Amino acid sequence: MQSITLEFRSEDLALLGLLPPGLFEKYEEIELLETLRLEQGWRLQLLRVRRRGPLKTAGELERESRRIRAGYGLESFELVERRPRTRDYILLVRQRNPERLRRLLTLAGGEIAPTAPFRLNAEKVVASFRGEERALRRVLKRLDREEFPYRILRASGRPFVPEEAAPLLTPLQAELLARAWVLGYYAVPRRITLSRLARQSGRSPPGLGKVLRRAEGRLVARWLAHEGAARDSDGDAAREG
Questions:
Q1: Cis preceding-peptide flag for 117 (omega within 30 of 0)
Q2: Buried b / exposed e across 200-233, counting CB within 10 Å, b at 16+?
Q3: What is the C-alpha to C-alpha distance for residues 121 and 67, in angstroms, rounded to an integer?
Q4: Per-residue pLDDT tens for 24-75?
Q5: Residues with Cβ within 8 Å of residue 149, at least 6 apart in sequence
């Protein structure tokens, strides 16, 4: 099993019909707490919804339930808890999946599930998923093929880069290195060629190869420096002993 965290621009998801229009005019942030059921046509999820203004009472939500369901494509919602101090609702929501999401779920084949962290606001959506590696690769390839803009923030199963090594990589190097790893460029045997990876990254093969080699060189140099320091430390300890 592998986990991956992606970042999308909220405006892109709204244009693609994956976010209801005007969602963040009234709500500041939405957090997925738990997915209880995920089917191709619908999903049942526990959400934390932060309102921009004061919270409505349970009675007001009940009276406006028809408008709320119609406006946000909900089949049903249930108020679990009100948190006036933080302006949060905890809601149990059953929601219809838009067509594009249905296609991605079909491609995932039931082998991928959303997980924490999963937060949405007016600027960006940070979405995490856990599932079989091959299913995650299929979905990422579809996003790339449809020129669906996203950025990989984290992915398990790739080499761990210590925090002190992170400044060695530029944001572009870090992003392209992560994408190359997730899509199997560094697998043995290799699951994607440099040419295909370049097309999916919107770069030329020579240009992408140069970025990856520079990033690899910096990481190798840091690793060799750490190994050399460790050997020197062990040698000093042995001589003192």
A1: yes
A2: bbebeeeebeebbeebeebbeebeeeeeeeeeee
A3: 22
A4: 999 999 999 989 889 889 999 999 999 999 999 999 999 999 998 988 889 9
A5: 8, 9, 12
Residues 42-58 as b or e (16 or more Cβ within 10 Å = b): ebbbbbbbbbeeebbee
DSSP 98: P
* CB atoms inside a 10 Å sphere around CB 180: 22
List the structure tokens of 173: 């190097």
Report d(CA 163, CA 174) in Å as an integer: 12
**What does residue 88 show for φ and ψ, rounded to 5 degrees?**
-110, 140
pTM: 0.66
From residue 226, alpha-carbon distances to 3, 53, 186, 197, 220 in Å are: 28, 52, 22, 31, 10
**Which amino acid makes up residue 240?**
E
